Amino acid sequence: MDPANDKSKEVPQQAAGPILSDRYALSAIDFGVVCLLVASYLLFYYLPLPTVGVWRDIAVGRSILDQAQLPQHPVQMPLAAAGSYRATNWLADLSLALIDRVGGPEAISLAGTLMVSGYLLFVYFVLCRGDYPQWLKLAAVFLTAATLFFPWQGLSPASASAIRLALFLAPLAIFARWRQPECGPSIWTWIFSPLAIVAWANSHWTFIAGPMLMTAIACGVIGDGLFAGKSLRETLATSSVQAWVWLAQICWFVTLLNPFGFGVWAEAFAQITHPLDGSGPLVLASGLGGIVIVQVIAFACLLRMSRVPFRTGDALLLVVAGIMAALNIHFVLAFVAVATIVCLPLTRGMFATSAAEKKTETSSSEQRPLRFAFTLLSLLAIWIGFALSPISAAVLGGTPRTLAQAVDDPPLGVVNYLNEHQQPRFVFAPVAWSDWIAYATADAPNLFATSDFDRLPQQAQFDYRRLVQGGAQWKRVLDRYAVDTLVIDKRTQADFATQALGDVDQQWQLAWESDRALILQRRID
């Protein structure tokens, strides 16, 4: 036998195949989502922290840590001691103080950025879970990022409520059992939703969104039963309806698991009617108003075009969330999340081919020779985002951010002087600087007014406005309150600075001055 013609011992050659599964092959839209997440990470990381708000909350958290009890009046603002005050944000304030102990303002900035990034991932993977087109998920993440951006004030108790909102909505969005006939809440909804509301009620007054949304679902389940032709008695006798009603009642009850009982509800209604944190009703001619308008228009169009059955619970969820968003801008984030949960299912069947089907159709290596190109580009974008962020200085080397870069124009010279000349003080300073001075000054001086300005007595508020504008009677007003240190911002109070320097006498002396600020000190005999 001719060995050249003997093919009995030939070993069949195996075709080279891919090592990674095609599920790791990202599309162009996936790459767009990654770029949006990376851009949001960098944007929120580089946004400087304001000099008001978050530092007051940290001061409250420090007070809780030092005294092992909740403060009875606004911290470092003795003029408001006689008014009613409840530290209802105590859990969030305590968390901020602990984060500040770890790394100061840079840690606060990083924690806020990670919170935003985590919430955007929650929107993409939980609220948008399902075989929806990727561009719809991208739009949902973009609208959420914009909702967080417009009112951004750093890692405040209001913005940190996104964590509790995500914990509350997660089991509802994953299982969506109110849309299924004769189906009660999942075990995870029974566990996580009440726990989220307990944490929420001890962190920020927007906790009222939790029980109201759960009540909307319960009422929606009852409505579905009535629309199905059952009587009210038959509907209420259904075990699934009873389960949703019981869960809603539990969500209302657990809001009382806090140090103030019904006081948190009084604080919530007071904040809605007379906000003390700079918030207010939704203005349609604003960034947040534009987002709400877009969501409402999208819902109206989808409701008209969709062939998916629409549940009463979805309608009530959207109505309740919309009313709350109209009352106060802090609820807009909850409205956007609810609109995402409600609107996405309405798109089923409206698009011929989903992204998953397209991947299946072109899964072979011959058809997609560069199918991992966008995966590699996504990894590159993540690395670039990390390399450009301030935290990379600890790993890659480089100069860390300065305090002036992490915080929006802080009065560093004023704080340095007060730290170098420590003594018991009662300081009058602009509200825009007071929170930072209270936070950064080592001896924790008392302030005439902080961002809790609205808690001051009416006469003190009137006198503050008089002093900020200057006037011939500024010494007499300061004498009335025994203020011993006057801080003036020369850029916004130029006339007052000129007048104060001209009025220096045996009672007041110029203690420190720069091109930005000046400090007048009462002479001590």
TrEMBL record:
It comes from the Bacteria. The keyword Electron transport does not apply. The chain crosses the membrane at residues 24-47, 107-128, 135-152, 158-176, 183-201, 207-229, 241-262, 282-303, 315-342, 372-396. The keyword Membrane applies. Keywords: Membrane, Transmembrane, Transmembrane helix. This is Glycosyltransferase RgtA/B/C/D-like domain-containing protein. The lineage of its organism: Bacteria, Pseudomonadati, Planctomycetota, Planctomycetia, Pirellulales.
